Every structure is written in structure tokens, then in C-alpha cells.
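User: Quick sanity check before I run a bigger batch. Here is a single chain. Can you write out its predicted 3D structure?
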Amino acid sequence: MAEQPRIATPSETSAILKRHGFRFKKSLGQNFLTNPQILTRIVAAGDVGPDDDVIEIGPGIGALTQYLAEAAHQVLALEIDPRLIPVLADTLAGYPNTTVVEADVLKADLPTLIADHFDGHHQLKVVANLPYYITTPILMHLMQTGVAFERLVVMMQKEVAARLVAQPNSKDYGSLSIAIQQTMDVEIAFEVNRNAFVPAPNVDSAIIKLSRRQTPRAEVTDQAAFDRLVRGSFVSRRKTLWNNLVNLYGKDQKPLIQAALDASEIPASSRAEQLSISDFATLTTNLSHQGLS
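Assistant: Done. Predicted structure follows.
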């Protein structure tokens, strides 16, 4: 395959946008990368190679898609903006291993799309520059589809990235940290200055690398009860764990809540951000023993 011109340069991006008469839509959080070095580093963070099938979410005009196509076995790009479908048909014409589908990832049937477009004999990864306004819903959706992604490498707002990697006893640690870290090892690969995009967003970004753990960080017997407990415990960060649990389970359940806390060796005066994932798993079990879930 002859080398294709780099999409992710300011001049080429400008030419593509002008050729197709494309105008950015703020409501879709469209910011296109124009720095090839950053794209090279994203692909490297994903350790993307010929043994990988890759899903990209929000390919834009194909800047990252191009690099993924040159490294991976197959690429499936999901784009919500119908105006970008003909643009991508143009920019990715030289990459027969790449398929673009007009789809909203939050509504798409990912297992079916994967079965339709991939052969099932390669590792499955997600590599994407996620729209800032909907990063968390997309991440949680990907985690809850039941698809065994080997790795997710996603760009997001730096502040959200800090929440994903946060540890107990820090201001950024919360229900999102726990939901992700329960089944994934998470690290910030590198940060990206806002000036690497057209148009430049109002915030800086970070590339997060999530790798699936062989076993969950803590054994959870009732996932729904665990999720409810974690969310409820962080409803009001200024309140103690006790107050949040009483709000969650009801004032009439105070003796049962106290018994569960005692069995878990967790002081009622604790705050949610002081508890590890293992603490929440233990507390879930002991609340269940008291008939609370």
C-alpha cells in the first residue's frame, strides 16, 4: 500500500474540511487532532498490532483511524455525525481493512457489530478520542456490554482522567474510580495540550490506558448491590458514610446498617473516599447478611 498523506496536519485537515464544506458542531464535541506525533503515541499506548481488531469511537475526519488502520488487522469506526460519513469515505479510501458505520455507540448493539465485522480470532481493543461531554457514559457503557475488550486507550478531559486513576483518600476518588478499577488496571499514558486540536477545546486532555485484569480487584457476590452501595455512599461527599447509608437504606434500618459496619470493621464516622474497593465489597456482603441490598 502506497503511503497515504497524513490527515492530522493543520494544512491537510484544513484542506479536507474546505473540500467537504464541513462545519464543526459544538453539540457533538468535535475537536480534531492535528499532531501526528500524538497519534503515534496513542497507537503505541494501545500496543496496536496486526493481531488486534480495533473499535474507534468518533473518528472525525479519520486522523487517528489512519494510524490504527496502518497498525491493526481490522478497524471498525463508529461515527454519530452523518455529515462525516462521506468525508471518511474520502479520507480512508486507501484502507480496505477499515469500516465506518454511522452509529451512536450508546445505542449500538456492540456484540452484534463485533460479530458482523470481526472474525473473532484477534484481540479486541478500543482506541478513541472520546467527546468530552459524554466520556463517562461511553466508558460505563463499554464496561457493561459484556464484551471482553483486551485494552481500552481513550483520550478524555484531564480532570476526568484524574478521577479514573484516583486512589482512596484523594479528592478525585469516587464511584467512577471504583467502577473502572474493579475490573481494569488504569494508568495515564500521557497528557495532551489543548492546542493540539482544531478547534482548540477549553481544557487539556489525557490519554488513559485501561487493561483488563485477570481477576476483579475484589470479589463481589452481588454486583447490583455493590454498585448501588458505591453510588449511594458518594451521593454527598461532605457527609459521613453513616449519613449516606441512612439516606440510602432508610432511617428505620439504622441498627442493621450499624451491624454491617461493625462486621466490616468500618467506623460509622468514615467518609466514602476513605474506603477501598475491597472495603466496599466486604460492606456489600455484610449489608446483604442484614437483609439490605
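Strands lie at 32-33, 52-57, 74-79, 98-102, 123-129, 151-157, 184-192, 197-198, 205-212.

User: Great, the batch can go ahead then.
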